[in-house]
Amino acid sequence: MAGWKKVIVSGSTAELAGITLSGAVNAGTDTDKFLVLDSSGNVDFRTGAQVLSDIGAGAGSGDISSVVAGDGLTGGATTGDATLNVGAGDGISVAADAVAVDATVLRTTGGGVVSGSSQITMGSDLSGTANNVTVDKVKGVALESGEVTQLANIDSTTISSTGANELYAMDQAVRTTDAVTFATVNTGQGANELYAMNQNVQTTDAVTFASVDTGQGANELYAMNQNVRSSDGVTFGSVTSDGSIIGKTDTITRFNFDGSTGITTIATASVEQNLTVGGDLIVNGDLTYLNTTNTAVEDQFILLGSGSTSADVGIIFQTGVTEGNAIGTAFFLDNGVSRLSYATAIAHDSTAVTPAAYIPLVFDVTGQGHTAVTDVGNIKIESGEAYIYV
Description:
- 5% of the residues lie in helices and 22% in strands.
- The chain contains three helices and 19 strands.
């Protein structure tokens, strides 16, 4: 019965009606068996003894006869459960899961207190009793008279500047913190001028020239033949020729026609250069030939089979020629079953094709909300699991 069947992939939860291992070993009457994966990737049966041997376990006979407490430990046993304890000593307290130094010991960290007649001596730098310590040096430098008292009385630090608000005095007595306004800036080209251009024209000027003499006459950039300038808009009442209009051979000749003008020819028209069509290009014929290396189409979608809604429609990739006709592999829509299909050895003028295979569709049910179509071979992804319709 056709339906969606789950595809077991990495991370899937297997839901199998049954499993058969045709290559299992040690499948005798002994029920003490384990399933293991061997080095070849096969699933095998192993007995309990074999599993113990595989993992390097012994037969269960040990040789420890007693547990003896070593240095700093107490307890032990020769049978049953053995307990070892840490022995306590001066300045050491022992509790459950904790060994610590008590307050009778002076530590470099913690809350150790020196009291009574205890005395600390560190060379000649620090000496005396706990409440009367004498400091002779700081970082190895001997303190002079009065410095000890000053050191004891320090309660704040004041750092004074080396000059009144001046970080650096620049040339012209201008400081880097000053807001400076210059009356003039002399660049050597004149007062208030950054640069003097030719003809005394500044870069900020809006310039109007009375005339521009190009050598062709006043106000003329170029004098064309027939006294027509290149800037003139020319209208001809009519253009008469002996059957052809020929432009200069070394330049491009362009003809522009308005919407009411048409070109009609009863012979074959040939355009040897680029042809640009501003409106629709309508071809009334049986075949359209594009003898180009590559074809660039700007449209996002191409409509095929616009003349019929019931025919097979697709693309044929030419693979050869049979009896003068091009044949190839087709990727098309089989209209009879509404499925994308595949076929080979299809003639270029075929109107109906029998599919050799169907193209499966993938539906993202959970992520994109697709509605899966129940055609054989289609795939759906739902809740992180893959299914195929068979």
